[in-house]
Amino acid sequence: MxxxxxxxxxxxxxxxxxxxxxxxxxxxxxxxxxxxxTAPAGTRIGLLVxxxxxxxxxxxxxxxxxxxxxNTKIFTTATAFATLGDLTRPDIEGGASxxxxxxxxxxxxxxDARLSSAAGCTVDCLATLADAVAAKTRVxxxxxxxxxxxxxxxxxxxxxxxxxxxxxxxxxxxxxxxxNELPITVTPAATLGAAPRVTVAPYYTVENAAIxxxxxxxxxxxxxxxxxxxxxxxxxxxxxxxxxxxxxGIDDPAEYxxxxxxxxxRARGVTVSGHATARHRPPGPGDDPARRGGAAxxxxxxxxxxxxxxxxxxxxxxxxTNKTSQNLHAELLLRRIGRVRGGGAIADGQAAxxxxxxxxxxxxxxxDLYDGSGMSTYNRVSPRGMVALLRxxxxxxxxAAWRETLxxxxxxxxxxxxxxxxxxxxxxxxxxxxxxxTSALSGWLIARSGRTLTFALFANDIPEGASATPAIDxxxxxVAAAN
Length: 483
Description:
Layout: H1 7-13, H2 30-36, E1 44-50, E2 56-60, H3 72-83, E3 97-101, E4 104-108, H4 126-136, E5 139-140, E6 143-146, E7 181-187, E8 197-200, E9 205-208, E10 211-213, E11 219-223, E12 230-238, E13 244-249, H5 253-267, E14 271-272, E15 276-279, E16 307-308, H6 314-324, H7 327-338, H8 346-360, E17 367-368, E18 380-381, H9 383-394, H10 399-403, E19 428-435, E20 438-446, E21 452-460, H11 469-482
Parallel strand pairs: 4-6, 5-14, 6-15, 9-12, 10-12
Antiparallel strand pairs: 1-2, 1-21, 3-4, 3-16, 7-8, 7-13, 11-12, 17-18, 19-20, 20-21
Helix pairs in contact: 2-11, 3-6, 3-7, 3-8, 6-7, 7-8
């Protein structure tokens, strides 16, 4: 039974109660309002919950625009399902290839996110391409990493520069290897005052200014200017502490892939007399769909390959992208979407997303998107716009398959530890989002009545050091209990 929110409580919480749909909405349930009131002071919340018929059940600022963080991946991955054809077949178009150009070896990428150099790799392996070169020739000059399948747009507008050196903001390239991340381990020394041992592939030049101390929490920092090869390690680690393991971002993934490929060739007895270099394609006027009037681009044929990989189906990568909130994979999907009619630029991908949203009937004022992952602080989405998209997805032939890529409360992905042991355990299917001062959660939940409800909840302006996650989760549990 719904209970209207007392006016005094509404004023105290600062909630904006507005109609959620054309039908007469219910007032915000007092239990939902009380849960939202536990969010850190200053937090701005937007929430919309509708039933299967689109009738509004809860509405808090549903038309305000919020930073969606990784909820942006909902737009990207849904557009992938809508535009890239049958995602359950092997990814024939995306696989990396290798060819010989004169005395040089060219390793070319086509947007695959899963190419691996791992020692135990069995599928989509860089070693397979190295074997093909070794079987063809024993001497080469340069090893060239070619990522010109997409224009050279490694970072999206509005992404914070200080994330570039981290795995969250690693460079985006058509030639991606090992998630464009470099593993690093920092192990304390046995002697106080000594520098800890740093274990990392020699791709970056390391300046180790960290020291081993007697005790205290590990406080190691990694500093690297964008597009610079010097990695400076600072801070302290206690003698006897567990090694610190992290993964660093890579600014030029094509060069890194060529650098790794050169090592694989040498390990197979191939003499490499030259260097590992990258070949990029600078963005041009043709990479702007607005300047070319939305016209499609004709892609010239690629030179014949000596060998080419066929990665697993893209549907599996969409699952990785949504379940684990993988930023790089989302950005690669956006660029692959952009190659359907364009050259693979960010703008081409965004044009396709806008086309899908227009088809879904999402109001243009409900969104502005600048990337595919949600790392951009320029992104804005309203709860009503997100709910409209989710309801449209439910009616698509691929909607059920897409929904299965979302994290499940208490079960897997980024929701594995949330909602466990609550009435929403295994009954909430949603995409998470987390960014500076931002938390988000959008998807579906099964209410106490057994009805499936669609919801979008955004929390912005969260004070530093605070979390709105408990309030978000409590509010959704209250929604489920009230319905």
